[in-house]
């Protein structure tokens, strides 16, 4: 599941992003309200963790804009803010927030609230993803092909999960780097290509149907369809 954090305080934002990724979520971070609103509207986001006091556009304005657009009207939003007055909580809920958590907070409580909202909402991710003859148990973090277990490391599973939940979409190296490795993509590094090669050896090489394909100059896509032939150097 993809969580968007809109938080301007650097330490808090970095802490939330790192912690949510360690819990198995995909987590993006925006450091002002305007950028956060743009990401919420343009990316495949499942839930927003939103601060109130933000530069460029405050949390109230962000939430009102999300609720005014058909594509984001039902997007779960959890306010995470130091504004602890009763009138602030009431205002947030009346604007359409799904939950309101006051800082300082316990991280385990935040995660519990996020999981509750995701279970409650219509955008809940399927517990099992199926592409071709592959089955991914999202909760158990297990992968099978043709009924045979495919043993992956935690990072390999995160990479496959990102590709699979965006089935048919070409994902750039920059996006993969930011979502799986929490890093900016450097064109001089081959970390993404090397990780794809390792995943292919386990997931694709033992089977006739190939699921992970390269789109030259664009990135990678997971789908049960023929892809471009892979040079030996990329396998």
Automatic annotation (TrEMBL):
Pfam families: Response_reg, Trans_reg_C. The keyword DNA-binding applies. Residues 2-118 form the Response regulatory domain. Keywords: DNA-binding, Phosphoprotein, Transcription, Transcription regulation, Two-component regulatory system. This is Heavy metal response regulator transcription factor. The modification 4-aspartylphosphate is found at residue 51. Residues 126-224 bind DNA. Coiled coil: none annotated. It comes from Massilia niabensis. The keyword Phosphoprotein applies. Residues 126-224 form the OmpR/PhoB-type domain. InterPro entries: CheY-like_superfamily, CusR-like, OmpR/PhoB-type_DNA-bd, Sig_transdc_resp-reg_C-effctor, Sig_transdc_resp-reg_receiver, WalR-like, WH-like_DNA-bd_sf. NCBIfam families: cztR_silR_copR.
């Amino acid at each position: 599941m993809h969580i968007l954090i809109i938080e301007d305080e650097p330490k808090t934002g970095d802490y939330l992003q790192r912690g949510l990724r360690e819990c198995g979520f995909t987590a993006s971070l925006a450091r002002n309200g305007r950028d956060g609103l743009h990401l919420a509207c343009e990316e495949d986001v499942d839930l927003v963790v939103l601060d109130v006091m933000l530069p460029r556009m405050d949390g109230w304005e962000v939430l009102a804009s999300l609720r005014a657009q058909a594509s984001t009207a039902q997007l779960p939003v959890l306010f995470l803010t130091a504004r602890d007055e009763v009138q602030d909580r009431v205002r947030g809920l009346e604007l359409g927030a799904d939950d309101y958590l006051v800082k300082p907070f316990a991280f385990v409580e935040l995660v519990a609230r996020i999981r509750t909202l995701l279970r409650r909402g219509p955008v809940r991710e399927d517990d099992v993803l199926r592409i071709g003859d592959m089955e991914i148990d999202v909760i158990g973090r297990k992968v099978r092909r043709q009924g045979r277990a495919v043993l992956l490391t935690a990072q390999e599973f995160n990479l496959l999960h990102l590709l699979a939940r965006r089935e048919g979409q070409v994902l750039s190296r920059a996006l993969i780097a930011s979502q799986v490795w929490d890093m900016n993509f450097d064109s001089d590094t081959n970390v993404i290509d090397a990780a794809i090669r390792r995943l292919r050896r386990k997931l694709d090489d033992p089977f006739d149907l190939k699921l992970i394909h390269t789109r030259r100059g664009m990135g990678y896509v997971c789908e049960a369809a023929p892809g471009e032939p892979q040079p030996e150097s990329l396998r």
